[in-house]
Each structure stands twice: as structure tokens, then as C-alpha cells.
Amino acid sequence: MKELLLNLRSPFLTFQLEDHYFLFDGGRAVLLEVTSIIYDIANSLPLYQVQSGDHFEFPTHQLLQKYTEEELNTAFQELHSFNQNGLLKYKGRIYEVYNQVYSLPEDQAAPSALWLNISHDCNMRCTYCYAEGGEYHHTKGMMSVETAKTCIDYWFEHANRSSERYDVTFFGGEPLLNQEVLFFAVDYINRLMKQIGGKYSIRLQQTELY
Ligand code: SF4
Fold first, then answer.
1. Which of 80, 6, 91, 87 is nearest to 47 (CA)?
2. What are the DSSP calls for 123-179, one per residue?
3. What's the predicted TM-score (pTM) here?
4. What is the mean pLDDT of the chain?
5. Which atom in ligand 1 lies closest to the alpha carbon of residue 123?
6. Band of the pLDDT at 180, cuts 50, 70, 90?
7. 198 alpha carbon – ligand 1 mean position (Å)
8. Among positive and negative, which fits the CA dihedral 133, 138, 144, 146?
9. Nearest residue by C-alpha to atom 8 in ligand 1
10. Does the beta carbon of 129 lie inside 6 Å of ligand 1?
């Protein structure tokens, strides 16, 4: 039987099957076979720091003991191209790592994803809720159309124009409790995308669709 080695420290689920290396991107539900260098880079990202957002020094010197600078550069370029195609974007850590080692041109470092927390409320009260029913330890509230437009305008102005596809996520709480802003935002982003001939995908965290 083949030995399967799992590593849960990485922000992506990584595993090795004999001399094949894999990354599972949970955000995209995509399984990638990668080189051993990319596998090692991914495993250099401690999960707890990815979740807390704490700054940490990427251990380039350790990798340089195993790989040449040229090999590392190629691996980071490959990671960058994964990012360009919407993969391995978990918490944006790969971009941060890449920027720590090789600075990117400003237009390539720009975001292609927009997350809008449009509802600080939820119709559910899950006991395990990380967001305290959408309130995030604050008060209930809904994003206004004006605020949504300001956020979208800022994102659109700074978005990475070389991106093949943009990501828009409506988040909460329960985003469908704020249908006014949801419908406004979709209509407004549609019009902006038409201007640049862009494509985008929508993610909606919801329980209220029936
Ligand atoms: S935001 Fe999600 S996890 Fe939290 S109470 Fe609502 S449905 Fe449950």
C-alpha cells in the first residue's frame, strides 16, 4: 500500500504520495499537483499565523539551504501564476510571501477580489458562530447603498486590470437580509464590468435562498 503523508500546518491541505506533491485549495475546492519546492514553500506558512494575520518572516534562508535562488524564483513565479488564475488565494498569504521575497509591480499586487460584509445580522443563531450571529461583538446593522458604492468604487479603481476574472463575495451575517444593497451591488458591478469587458464570479454566504 502506498504511503500517504499529510501535513496540516500549511494554510492549504498538503500531502505527499510517494514522489508526488499535492496542495488542496479548500477555498476553491481544487487539487493541484505541484513541485516539491512549492510544496515546501506552502509548508513554510504556519497556519496559526495565517489565521491571526500576524507578521512573520518567511524562512527564505532555510529554503535556500535546499534550493537555489533560481529554483525558488521559478517556484514563486509559478505560485504567482496560480494566484493570477484565482488559485491559492487563501488569506492572500501567498501574495504577501511573494512580495516579501520579490517585489511585484504595483498593478500586479493590486487586488482582484472584493469582500463586502453587507449584513451585521443573521436570522440564525448557530452556537458555533464565529461572528456571533453576524454581529462580530458589535451591534446589528446593515451596510448602506452609499457605503457599498464607495467600497465598490475604491475596489474597481484599484483592482488588478490584468486579472482574468474578479471575485466578489457578499458576506455577513446573512447577506440576503440586506437585499437592497445586494441587488444594487450586483447591478452596479455588472455595469462596471461591462466598461472593461471583465468577468467576475459571485460568492454568497447564505441560508435564506429558497
Ligand atoms: S453567520 Fe453563519 S454561522 Fe453565524 S449564525 Fe449566521 S448562519 Fe450561523
1. 91
2. S---TT-TTTTTTTTS--EE--HHHHHHHHHHHHHHS-TT-SSEEEEEESS-GGGGH
3. 0.53
4. 76
5. 6
6. very high
7. 32
8. negative
9. 126
10. yes
Closest CA to 182 of 208, 164, 158: 208
Query: Ligand 1 test: best mutation among 128, 129, 130, 170, most atoms within 8 Å of CB?
Result: 129
Give the pLDDT band (50/70/90) at residue 205: low
Centre of ligand 1 from the C-alpha of residue 144, in Å? 21
**In whole angstroms, how far apart are CA 66 and each of 36, 52, 61, 94?**
11, 29, 9, 20
Amino acid at 135: E
DSSP 103: P
| Residue 91 pLDDT > 50 | no
Whether 164 shows a pLDDT value over 50: the answer reads yes
Check pLDDT > 90 for residue 182.
yes
Nearest residue (CA) to ligand 1, atom 5: 133
Q: How far is the CA of 175 from the centre of ligand 1 (A)?
A: 11
pLDDT(200) > 70 = yes
